[in-house]
Amino acid sequence: MVLLLSLTMKWIQHLTFSQTEFALKLTVKLYGTLSRFFEAYDHLSGLDVVLPDESSINDLLEHLNLKSERLGMIYMDGEPLNKNSQLKSGAQVKIFQPIAGG
Amino acid sequence: MTTEKVSYEDIEPAFTGMGGRGLTSFFVNKEVPPMCDPLGSENKLIFAPGYLSGTPFVNSSRLSIGAKSPLTGGIKESNVGGTVAADLGNIGISAIIVEGKPKENQCYILTIDQTGTAALVDGTAQSGQRTYSLVAALKEIYGDTQSITCIGPAGEYELSAASIQSTDRDGRPCRAAGRGGLGAVMGSKGLKAIVVEQNARTPESIHDATAFKGGAKEFAKAVLADEFTGELAELGSAVLVEPINAAGAFPTRNAREGQFEDADKISGETMAQVIKSRGGIQNHKGCAQCIINCSNEYVDEKGKYVTSSLEYETIWSMGGMLGNSDLDSIARLDFLCDDIGLDTISTGVAIGVAMDAGYKEFGDANGAIAMVEEVAEGTEFGKLLGHGPAHVGNHFNHDRVPVVKGQSIAAYDPRAINGMAVTYATSPMGGDHTAGFVVESNLKEFGGTLDRFSSKGQVDASRDAQIHMVLVDTAGICDFAQTGFGSAGGVGNVCNVIAAKSGQPFTEEDWTNIGKRVLQIEVEFNRNAGFTKEQDRLPKMFYEEPLPPFNGVVVVSDDEMDTTFNFFTD
Asked: Closest partner residue to A70 among B227, B270, B433, by Cβ?
């Protein structure tokens, strides 16, 4: 009985450990014509993305299959990102295309 | 117009190889007394298609219109797309010059047929008409294959924010030479409309057709290959709403903030969805020779036509600038301005100033619509509004009026993009965004070149953009087709195209030198009209009021501004 309990505890610990490896949750909004790559994309709710901890912007773009696209600005919770910025769990990320103007 | 006569001249040797803005600015500087009354008989109104208009070059149907501006009191070039520039180019007309002033209250139509034969026709029956009715009436008389360039009631009232409208490929008077009040100049000369016959077949005026074709093809390929072209086709220029808003550079409620909390309700993405679900049109070709199709047809919930084309600048001026999140009312305001013949930018900002001064509440879309209708009615307030934001500001004794040289800024707040501060302040055109557009170079967070909150490099960037834009406006190339300069040959490729047309050498050095020369004569005209360097400054609010959410101010100093034109020769 005690053995079973301790095995169960180990299993629960293992589950919890795995989930913290993928704890970076983001809501991604795609602007311009970027949403054309995503069938069921709804602009009001955006895309829910879950990534491993410590993921970078490059990892996010890779995950979204946007690495070969020319992109414009990327904002996280209203602040512009640069290539060294850290992604934050629970954040909203906006990805724009390049612009020119008028 | 004084003698009611039309005369024809060959273009002077001095102007050979010129078109568009190069031609209008040289001409205005040469023939218009800088101190003259812009609404008097000494001002001259010149219409000049771009040098490449009427050729097979893509996106080349741009008409430049020049005169002394009643809005700024300085030199003005305002340009418009649609079909008329290509038609004039096809006929072989380099410019139409309107001089003098008719007897009191006379109203004329100028007709030009395929052979280039022009006639001044009595326009009394069309006097007072709004542009959509006017175009319908003129089509009854002259048939369907005409490009019509005209003014509405605002121009006939000689109001300083009056536009000159021109018809698009669908024959609607929805393309606008908006900035600078040239509609008032046209009205002061008693000219209601210019009717130009389409489909002229003049002998080829291209010296080396093979070289021309090769260069034009290279340019077109680069336009099609650029992402931005696809964005414009799908979402129109409205694609700019969300990125500019995210950058905190979207002037909101008379530029009190740089971000509009309801930007998503008036964004390009939302507009595209609305248009699609209601059966309107995106990816619409508004202008002759266009391969981008940035235009749209906006419709109401019943699918009925409201306006074409609804642009970023209007969504800003009638939306964010007024705290108005209702796209339908913005579309209605766009139509009203086209129909009455008003610059949507100046008019929206004028309404914004009135709201900021307490005349109406921000967000009162119906109030805005009523104000614009008053312009057509010719009420006292209507005339005030039609004279633009500076007049409205004066009337209400309001100290927050976002104008330079009397002309309002556009949909990019200079406190969030210091490069635009330089362009707005120093351009001889007044507050003008296309004259020296430096937004991308200020906004690239990934490997960008300029810090938009710093003055570093901004004067250089604005100077280069202003010089370059002179030639874009002289050649008659659409601003959105500038992606074509991204081809391997770049600007040099377009220079080769110009040389192939003229049969004379034209290099990148010529490109830059002409740009510098035209800017110099424009600034000289303004100096002779009474401008000093004090006119190259932004209103106090931009230096002193931090713009939320990033809380920047204009940090480019007066001394730095004054180095913008350091290339002027004696």
From this structure: B227
Q: Is B443 on the interface with A (CB under 8 A)?
A: yes
Three-state DSSP at B497 gives helix
- A100 close to B (CB below 8 A): yes
ipTM of model: 0.90
How far is Cα B447 from Cα A82, in angstroms, rounded to an integer? 8
Task: State how far the Cα of B431 lies from the Cα of B445, in Å rounded to an integer.
Answer: 26
For B313, residues 6+ apart whose C-beta sits below 8 A from its C-beta are A102, B237, B344, B345, B410, B411, B433
Q: How far apart are CA B120 and CA B169, in angstroms?
A: 25
With contact defined as beta carbons under 8 Å apart, do B56 and B143 qualify? no
Q: How many helices (H) and strands (E) does chain B have?
A: 22, 15
Cβ separation of B227 and A98 shorter than 8 Å?
Answer: yes
Which residues face B109 on adjacent strands? Answer: B121, B193
pTM: 0.95
Cβ <8 Å between B231 and A97: yes
Q: What are phi and psi of B42, to 5 degrees?
A: -85, -20
B205: enclosing H helix or E strand:
none
Q: Does A2 touch chain B (CB under 8 A)?
A: no
DSSP letter at B177?
E
Whether the CB of A99 is below 8 Å from some CB of chain B: the reply is: yes
* Phi and psi torsions of B371, nearest 5°: -60, -45
A59-85 pLDDT, tens digit each: 999 999 998 888 989 999 999 987 778
